[in-house]
Write a structure and sequence with these properties.
Blueprint (H helix, E strand, L loop, with lengths): L1 E9 L8 H13 L8 E6 L10 E7 L2 H9 L1 H10 L3 E9 L1
Antiparallel strand pairs: 1-3, 1-4, 2-3
Length: about 100
Amino acid sequence: MIRHLVLFKLDDGVERDDPRVVAGAEAFRELGGKIPELEFWECAWNITDRPIAYDFAINAAVADEDALKRYIEHPEHRAAAGQWREFATWVIADYPF
């Protein structure tokens, strides 16, 4: 199994209630039921406001590196990630478990 973690940081001046952000979060929430490679899927807003904290997190699992590649290349994933490029930066970690 491969764990796929993503942490998003909203750009300066961008708030969670910005319509683009609301749409982007909803697009990610919906991915869990749309991409068969996802064996586990959760995403949520961070509840802390510490200066070093990121704003939104994805925690997912796929079977192997091939499944991870199919997930990343899936059109629904590309569309959702594309929305976030407009208003956030992120970091990713993929590791076996």
